[in-house]
Design a protein that fits this description.
Distance between the termini: 125 Å
Strand order of the largest sheet: 1-2
Shape: elongated
Number of helices: 16
Oligomer: single chain
Largest sheet: 2 strands, antiparallel
Mean pLDDT: 77
Structural class: mainly alpha
Number of strands: 2
């Protein structure tokens, strides 16, 4: 067995070293423990620690004014040395030149009895200083928002986020109850948390909410805050998929001016889009035919106005998606399909009529540009005057007239005529 080597000036230091050796032995692997002497080595350390404790206990009893003695000698000196140390103290008493402290190592006299801490350093006043950790208010606020709240808000945003961003920011978001209620829960919870922790505006500034009506702007602000602070992933809102808008080529058949059914090729469809007077029958075959006409050679589907004067590139990609009420919409310019179909129908129906401005002529393109709101007004006016909805307009002439006749007779019946 390897006997642990401990050479110290006093018992207190020896006790510290013995404890360190025992702790190191406990953490050693099996091979090292065996090399050191195994269990016998451990027992010898434990015995030495016990002897040191006993020695200090005897000294403390004889010198009650000292908190923790540091005395010369060592348990290595054997039991006789322990007895001798105590006997010397009793003989010397208070009659010697140094009093009862003569048994302490001269180098350690008047330094006090406190053992040095291996982990913390004391100041000159004997006080231990704790490290002050200043917590970030933002991180505390982020932690206080539960995963359930974030999950519910994100689910609502996936379903309605595009409509929220496209809506009037000043209007109340009463339509989307679940999203609104979750937003209120988060806003109130964070407000209470900030008030409880007494954060100043300089430390943390929260979204202003007075507990009243939740507007679309407030929902957008909360969404942006959650994304900015990495509690939600941005740009994941689910975009409505336009009905009937697919990448697959749809076969379009129309009735030409001679009354013959013909199949439109890709080049013919493109000509129908850029030339108002060609193939007017494309607006008598329903929405599917309109979509194929509005698809350009690059496969992009845009209304006539956006195709000629609208946004391009990244600006087009960032254009807000219209509200769900306008669905379906065109996948590239994001204009409502009904409005785009009405615009194409008007261009085809008025092509060649004298006195009516024509696309492709001398008039600048921007002067013939139409927006979704204006097209809604025009469509509403046509329906009020004829009973024809946009879908009704996209039929052959005889079918349109039949709808108008039934509408007119019903109107006349209401007037008692």
């Amino acid at each position: 067995m390897n006997t642990p080597e401990i050479n110290t000036v006093n018992v207190s230091d020896e006790l510290i070293q013995a404890r360190k050796l025992l702790e190191a032995f406990k953490k050693a692997n099996k091979g090292l423990k065996k090399t050191l002497g195994g269990n016998a080595y451990k027992l010898s350390l434990e015995k030495r620690i016990g002897d040191c404790d006993a020695f200090i206990g005897q000294y403390s009893t004889a010198n009650p004014n000292l908190e923790t003695p540091q005395v010369s000698g060592s348990p290595n000196d054997g039991q006789n040395r322990l007895g001798q140390s105590q006997q010397e103290q009793e003989i010397q008493g208070n009659s010697g030149p140094g009093g009862p402290n003569d048994s302490i190592d001269p180098n350690l006299r008047n330094q006090g009895a406190a053992l040095p801490s291996p982990k913390r350093v004391r100041g000159n006043d004997g006080q231990r200083y704790r490290k002050i950790v200043e917590e970030n208010p933002l991180e505390l606020v982020k932690d206080c928002i539960s995963a359930r709240m974030i999950s519910r808000f994100q689910t609502g945003w996936l379903e309605h986020g595009t409509a929220v961003e496209a809506a009037d920011p000043t209007q109340p978001a009463e339509k989307y109850v679940s999203l609104r209620d979750t937003a209120i829960e988060i806003l109130d919870h964070v407000s209470d948390f900030v008030e409880e922790h007494k954060f100043s505006d300089a430390q943390f500034h929260w979204i202003e909410y007075d507990g009243g009506v939740v507007t679309f702007s407030l929902l957008t602000s909360l969404y942006n805050w959650l994304v900015t602070n990495e509690l939600m992933v941005g740009n994941i809102q689910k975009k409505p998929v336009p009905r009937k808008v697919t990448e697959d080529q749809v076969t379009v058949k129309i009735t030409d001016e001679k009354g013959k059914r013909i199949t439109m090729s890709s080049s013919m469809l493109n000509d129908a889009r850029i030339n108002p007077s060609l193939y007017p029958g494309v607006v008598e075959e329903g929405m599917d035919a309109v979509l194929e006409v509005l698809k350009n050679r690059n496969g992009r589907v845009k209304c006539l106005t956006c195709d000629s004067t609208g946004l391009r590139g990244q600006a087009l990609e960032q254009k807000p998606i219209p509200p769900q009420a306008d669905d379906p919409y065109l996948k590239d310019c994001k204009c409502p399909l009904r409005g785009a179909a009405l615009e194409l129908w008007m261009v085809k129906m008025t092509a060649g009529i004298e006195g009516i401005p024509q696309r492709g002529g001398d008039i600048p393109k921007h002067r013939l540009a139409l927006n979704p709101d204006i097209l809604k007004v025009i469509g509403g006016a046509i329906e009020v005057a004829s009973g024809l909805s946009v879908e009704d307009l996209l039929q052959p002439e005889m079918d349109r007239l039949e709808v108008t006749v039934h509408w007119a007779l019903k109107r006349l019946g209401k007037d008692g005529r």
